[in-house]
Amino acid sequence: MPRTSVGILVLILGSLLGCASRNIHPELSPDFQGSSVGKGESLVTRGWTYSFEPLSSARGGSGVEYIAPLAYDRTLIVGSSRFGVVSFYPHLQRERWRLPLHHGVISPMTEYQGVLYFVSGDGEVLAVSADQGKILWRYVLRNPVASKITVKNGLLYLVTSDDTVVCLSAQDGVWKWHYRKRSGVSGPTIHGASTPFVVDDTLWVGFSDGSLVVLNPEDGKIIREKQLNTNRRFSDVNADFVRAGDSVLVPTFDGALYALNPKDSSILWVNEDMGGASRVSVQGEFLYVASSSGKLFKLSLSRGTKVWEFELDQGTGLSPRVVGSKLVVASTSRYFYVLNAETGKPEYRYDAGYASGFAGDLVLLEASVVPSQISHSSVSIVGMTLGGNLMNFNILRE
To answer: What is the rounded distance in angstroms from the CA atom of residue 220 to the CA atom of residue 212?
Structure first.
């Protein structure tokens, strides 16, 4: 993904989705405070909002946020493009520690056995103590845009935006091997890269030319390669893969959703126009997909048959979260939704404001980190807005 810039995600979404004033669900109140459908106790209540640093403090960047917070031991760990990384107590709304980084963080973070692994805006792979915020080691990568890091058997794997897979020692950051995909892509690509995905004793990686490459995780040698996305506009395979029973679910951006055989990567089924850059959510015999077309789909896991679809007012959906009988999804433009997971009927919508939206996936908070009067009656969810505010929503338990 060699032509990717920090701002390309916002520019692409704007060009894809057109008018910013769409309100295609008039049954949901456009009131800024949101609305719930039904009588009695509110389905969703807005909780707290917390801003770590004013948008005007952006240091040498656009100030737009890209990544989701990460839940760890009664805290949320937040990576910001503006200031670096901060550990935050959500129940107290106080910081535990802060790690300033000159160019912040624009690539997703991973926590493994008390250590944070991520790529900084300075283009370094960092290993940081999740308890103290101290840097344990660093590796100069020279590319600030990279995938979420995967850790397995003492090794860590990441993919850079120029289609290079890098393998390091998780203990000390020593280089082990790398694999460079010569894609030859000349058109625009999507911000980010696919998270390396371990399938049994192999490593699966998606690339900007629409290909899936299966590598040996020990030495990076190619086991097999498969072309998936042939879309001429955006061919990227950069969403997280999901193992669901006897299949691996692989979305392609602006293309199709594939269910592949984990043994040989053969296609079990494919559903056109249901691909995207968001992780698919699986619940029992069904899966929920946020596509790059701005729609949500519920599909059968066995054959990919569509059960229902729901069109967002604006933007594209981030990875849906199933909460009981509800499906919760945030959009990259303005809205936070709660739908009936069985029928796809919208039951709540919150407007985060014009020129706003959400970055990264929603985080479900454990009951131990929210006030007792809320945790007994509701499920607490947190999302990061593009403008850098943590927003809390409490969804009524059924």
So the answer is: 14
252, 261 Cβ separation under 8 angstroms: no
2 pLDDT exceeds 50? no
**Amino acid letter, residue 280:** V
Distance of CA 320 to the CA centre of its chain: 10
Share in percent of the chain as helix, strand, coil (round to 5): 5, 45, 50
The Cα–Cα gap between 355 and 110 comes to 29
Q: pLDDT (tens digit, 9 = 90+) per residue, 301-360?
A: 999 999 999 999 988 899 999 998 999 999 999 899 999 999 999 999 998 887 789 988
H or E segment and range at residue 128: strand 124-129
- 247-275: average pLDDT: 90
Residue 40, classified by CB atoms within 10 Å of its CB into exposed (0-12), middle (13-18) or buried (19+), is exposed
Q: Rounded to an integer, what distance in angstroms lies between the CA atom of residue 301 and that of residue 318?
A: 19
Separation CA 311–CA 209 (nearest Å): 28
Buried b (16+ CB within 10 A) or exposed e, 340-361: ebeebebbbbbbbeeebbbbbb
- Contact of 285 with 301, CB cutoff 8 Å: yes
**Structural domains in the chain plus CATH codes:** 8-396 (2.130.10.10)
Sign of the alpha-carbon torsion through 296, 297, 301, 307: positive
Q: Which of 163, 71, 72, 59 is nearest to 106 (CA)?
A: 59
